[in-house]
Amino acid sequence: MKRKLRLMVAKPGLDGHDRGARIIARAYRDAGYEVVYTGLHQTPEEIVEAAIQEDVDMIGLSSLAGAHKYLFLRVIELLKEKDADDIVVCGGGIIPDEDIMILKQAGVKEIFTPGTTLDEIVKWVEDNIHPRID
Amino acid sequence: MNELAKKVLAGDVRSVARVIRNIDDGIPSVKDVLIDLYPHTGRAYVIGITGAPGVGKSTLVDQMIAHLRKKNKTVGVLAVDPTSPFSGGAILGDRIRMQRHSLDEGVYIRSMATRGHFGGLTQSTRTAIDVLDAMGKDYILVETVGVGQDEVDIVKNAHTTVIVVIPGMGDDIQAIKAGILEVGDIFVINKSDREGSDKTLGDLKLMIAMDQKKHDEGGWKPEIIKAQAVFDKGIDDLLVEIDNHRDFIIKAKGDIHPRRQPKKVREELIEMIKIQIMTQIMNKLTRTGKFEKAVAMIVKGEIDPYTACEDLFSD
């Protein structure tokens, strides 16, 4: 029996721009995935708890407001604390090159910056994210 | 006892999430977990909330959670959203309105997609309700978009079914008349500050009055509540009515456990048999390639679907 991929798209912090996040969610849906969207202004704690309750395989974080270093890393930290770091974290938004290294070293699997096409992102998910089977 | 079942009974959220996923994905081994959980079900009170898109179901559910939590009741939520018939994917967005409860340990919220499985949606929702019941939730709220038969079937799993409408959707009520009116125990007119709410109230009253005979014979007479979920208005009234309905059921049936009622048990067993037969036959037909062969023959015009179906079965 083939498992269905479940993803979460989340907007951490005070950033109020979710057009991009919604477009990504839509692209994932069109690729055949189930996408839980959390809405705006989420704390890392809320995101991680929701991800666990929903049993998603990946959390996609969107940040356009500059607080990604704190917010993304806090999500990674909380997943570890909750023994849920088998959930992959990736991110997207306005993220300077020098931060990408830091985020990736801390465990963010991939960062998508402006200019990345939806096809590229979906392809990446297809290649890299797999349902977490017991 | 099954390890996963043990953890579910202890209220472990990750295990609950995993079991529901296994149900959703149709993993056969989930049966062992369910067998162990079964003796621990039948305690939760299940409320179905349905209505057209945009009437405020998720907001209403969000407020109901808040009110139930104030009374120290634990709450499980199953929010069902439609799967895209084209891609098989789904955007599950009901959570957005309920996220303020995500850090509350007394609340578990799970989004589910309708998927395409043959009639299995009712079954998988019922099973997911069992899991939340076994994990110890006092109330389980099941939210669905009330448009199709599937959704109506889902709310049949509920003890109390709440139908949400908004003013000014005359045609909407027409649709309800034909479909889900019969399953409504309580009607909520949400966004009742909008124009036309008295008209909607009148329409609903009239529809309910048409069942006067049933009410005279001791049947439940549905209540109508005006609410503005976003402003937290009408929620107390709704919960009082739900309690009244619960008392009514207990008086009439003596028990809220759905498995103590032959009618529900019969429906559930038939559903399970259907899925079992379907799965076994389809597995065999796809494995032998006969199914696709038949499809190809029908497409080419070499055979009609009726004969093809007969042939498939004659094996």
Strand order of the largest sheet of chain A: 2-1-3-4-5
Task: Tell me the fraction of residues in β-strands of chain B, as a range.
Answer: 5-15%
The CATH class of the largest domain in chain B turns out to be: Alpha Beta
User: What gross morphology of chain B would you assign?
Assistant: globular
Please characterize this protein's 3D structure.
The complex is a heterodimer of chains A (about 130) and B (about 325). Chain A has about 130 residues and is α/β, with parallel strands linked by helices. Chain A has one domain (about 5-130): Rossmann fold. Helix content of chain A is about 45%, strand content about 20%. Chain A has 5 helices and 5 strands, in the order E-H-E-H-E-H-E-H-E-H. Chain A has a 5-stranded parallel sheet, sandwiched between helices. Chain A is globular and about 40 Å long. The model of chain B has no long low-confidence stretch (mean pLDDT about 90). Helix content of chain B is about 50%, strand content about 15%. Chain B has a 7-stranded parallel sheet with strand order 4-2-5-1-6-7-8, sandwiched between helices. In chain B, helix 1 (about 5-10) crosses helix 3 and helix 12 runs antiparallel to helix 13 (about 305-315). Chain B is globular and about 60 Å long. By secondary structure, chain B is α/β, with parallel strands linked by helices. The chains are: A alpha/beta (about 130), B alpha/beta (about 325). The interface between A and B is medium-sized, with 32 and 33 residues. Strand 2 of chain A pairs parallel with strand 3 (about 90) of chain B.
